[in-house]
């Protein structure tokens, strides 16, 4: 049984931990507001560009002069999985959900006889994937967005992916990240960015509603500019969504930790009071017994 001194020290230790988790919760809440605003502001442009290029991919499918980044290489033997996590922990299941989704997708592709390459974006992705899938991992990125995600960082990741695609190092690229829903909910998203997926047609009305685009000065020149920019835009959106999800998950995790610390302090205080009362009662009994003996 723990002594009164041990219980007092443990209560002091848990109180200190509660102060730390409470402070981390407030910091995460402050960062969440900025990250959420940035993520929501980036969605409309990214979604509109994705729809436009999806329509282009459908209209240019099968044409010999269509850019490979838009329509693909014609095969899907080599898959590049870009796993976007955080560099830090203490954010609940935020990182582990992305790792599990990446492992599941990689295992499924390997069963189909495909070749898999994994690019970790975030230190936790590299640390948690290297044990089981270290042989499939390539050079990734860490320490992104330490002072907030900027477009230049997303452009750096996109340039690396684009260079690999031009060198024919993969056929299909999928980005796996957490999409921000709320402070307590994130959705694991698997977004194929190369080639751009052709939107499914649900009926005859969709088949007749295709947009017609006129290119000026020329189709090749415009697509050569738009496609890499769209890749950077989608990566920028994924990084923003991931950062907002990270701060929401961390705020929730620290709130739960603070609440649990409070419950532990109450339980320890009860245990301390009972032990102290039992010790006082024992001493009184000893005094009374000694007086009666005399």
TrEMBL record:
Q: Which residues form a coiled coil?
A: none
Q: Say if the entry is tagged with keyword Ion transport.
A: yes
Q: Per its UniProt record, what InterPro entries does this chain match?
A: ATP_synth_F1_ATPase_gsu, ATP_synth_F1_gsu, ATP_synth_F1_gsu_CS
Could you name the Gene Ontology cellular component terms for this entry?
Answer: plasma membrane; proton-transporting ATP synthase complex
A GO biological process this protein is involved in?
Answer: proton motive force-driven plasma membrane ATP synthesis
What PANTHER family does the record tag this protein with?
Answer: ATP SYNTHASE GAMMA CHAIN, ATP SYNTHASE SUBUNIT GAMMA, MITOCHONDRIAL
Q: What does this protein do?
A: Produces ATP from ADP in the presence of a proton gradient across the membrane. The gamma chain is believed to be important in regulating ATPase activity and the flow of protons through the CF(0) complex.
Give the protein's recorded name: ATP synthase gamma chain
What organism does the UniProt record list as the source?
Answer: Paramagnetospirillum kuznetsovii
Question: What lineage, starting at the top, does this entry show?
Answer: Bacteria, Pseudomonadati, Pseudomonadota, Alphaproteobacteria, Rhodospirillales
- Gene name, per UniProt, is atpG
């Amino acid at each position: 049984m723990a002594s009164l001194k041990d219980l007092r020290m443990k209560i002091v230790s848990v109180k200190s931990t509660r102060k730390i988790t409470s402070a981390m919760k407030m910091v995460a809440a402050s960062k969440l507001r900025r990250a959420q605003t940035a993520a929501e502001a980036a969605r409309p442009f990214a979604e509109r560009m994705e729809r436009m290029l999806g329509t282009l991919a459908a209209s240019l499918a099968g044409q010999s002069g269509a850019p490979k980044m838009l329509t693909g290489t014609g095969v899907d033997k080599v898959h590049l999985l870009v796993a976007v996590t955080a560099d830090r922990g203490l954010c609940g299941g935020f990182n582990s959900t992305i790792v599990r989704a990446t492992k599941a997708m990689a295992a499924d592709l390997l069963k189909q006889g495909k070749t898999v390459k994994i690019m970790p974006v975030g230190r936790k992705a590299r640390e948690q994937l290297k044990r089981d899938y270290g042989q499939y991992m390539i050079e990734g990125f860490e320490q992104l967005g330490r002072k907030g995600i900027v477009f230049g960082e997303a452009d750096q990741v996109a340039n690396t992916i684009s260079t690999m695609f031009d060198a024919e190092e993969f056929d299909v690229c999928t980005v796996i990240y957490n999409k921000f829903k709320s402070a307590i909910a994130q959705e694991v998203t698997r977004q194929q960015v190369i080639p751009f997926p052709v939107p499914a047609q649900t009926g005859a009305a969709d088949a007749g509603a295709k947009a017609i685009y006129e290119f000026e000065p020329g189709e090749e020149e415009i697509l050569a500019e738009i496609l890499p920019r769209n890749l950077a835009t989608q990566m920028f959106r994924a990084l923003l969504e991931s950062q907002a999800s990270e701060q929401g998950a961390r705020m929730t995790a620290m709130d739960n930790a603070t609440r649990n610390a409070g419950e532990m302090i109450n339980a320890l205080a009860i245990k301390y009071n009972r032990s102290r009362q039992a010790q006082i009662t024992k001493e009184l009994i000893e005094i009374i017994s000694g007086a009666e003996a005399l």
